Amino acid sequence: MGETTEGTLPSLSRNRRRVSLVLLVAFAALFPYVAVPRPADLTAFDPAEAAGLETAMWRHYYDHRFAALFLDLYRLARDQQGFSPLDSARIAVAAARAAKTFQPTTSRNEAQAAVPLLADYFAVLARGAPGPVDIAAAAAAELDWWQARRESVGPKDYGLTIARVATLLYGVDGADVRTFGVLRAEAMAFRDARGAAITEADWDAIDAQLRDAYGHLKQAVSRGAKIR
Q1: Backbone angles phi, psi at 72, to 5 degrees
Q2: Digit-coded pLDDT (tens) for 50-89
Q3: Assigned domain for 192 exists
Q4: Which of 165, 172, 160, 162 is nearest to 131 (CA)?
Q5: Do 213 and 55 contact (CB within 8 A), yes or no?
Q6: What is the value of pTM for the model shown?
Q7: Which residue has the higher pLDDT, 218 or 38?
Q8: Is residue 23 part of a domain?
Q9: Which residue range is the domain that position 84 belongs to?
């Protein structure tokens, strides 16, 4: 019995070394895929896909399903914008945390708690922008239109702030960018007006409106319209 046990020890040790080697090789192969930054491109989005993901995000936000919201944000960054899995996760975590932090606030002062998280979000997102991004300005503008919705500001007004965020990210301006912002804001206002009575048909209408909005943004970034 003792001889059998002693004979198995070298074998077990060799097996452990083989397993460790396999895990090391697998880690070395996966690390570049997961962690190394990719040449992401914010302008590479498909309008219909982006609209569908945003519609899903809104639904999950209002249902307080933040894990599902995280997955939608991850897919947007990974599939539509080309970020690495690690950067996609960082973008999704920062955005989801910002939304979760903002949701229970009741004043502009309280809402400022979301600013650092929005800054984290835009800092990673900026890696896929076609030019330099003023991260602090983008975070402030994003929070501004979030708060404006709560203050009975009309969608045509806070839609222009949404357009301002797009201008900061994409480096473009013009009628299509402003139309994108207003259409997106009007879709939000429609959702807010429907409230708890919202139906699947309403969500389909929101998705269609967002497709139109992102179509205008795609036209603007494809042309590379200069900032005025």
Answers
A1: -65, -45
A2: 999 999 999 998 888 888 989 999 999 999 999 999 999 9
A3: yes
A4: 172
A5: no
A6: 0.80
A7: 218
A8: no
A9: 37-223
Sign of CA dihedral 48, 95, 180, 135: negative
pLDDT of residue 224: 77
Contacts (Cβ under 8 Å, ≥6 apart) of 125: 42, 77, 91, 133, 169
Answer yes or no: are the C-beta atoms of 105 and 113 closer than 8 Å.
yes
With residue 219 as reference, give the H or E element that holds it. helix 200-223
- Rounded CA-CA distance 69/56 in Å is 8
Alpha-carbon span 32 to 154, nearest angstrom = 46
Is residue 47 included in any domain, yes or no? yes
How far CA 134 is from CA of 119, 158, 178, 194, 217, in Å, comes to 10, 20, 19, 35, 19
Helix (H, G, I), strand (E, B) or coil at 12: helix
Number of domains in the chain: 1
Residue range 185-201, pLDDT digits in tens:
999 999 999 999 999 99
55, 56, 62, 66: CA torsion to nearest 10: -140
Residues in the chain: 228
Using DSSP's 3-state secondary structure scheme, residue 164 falls into helix
Does any domain span residue 16?
no
Q: Alpha-carbon dihedral of residues 122, 102, 218, 69, nearest 10 degrees?
A: 100
- pLDDT tens digits, 110-125: 999 999 999 999 999 9
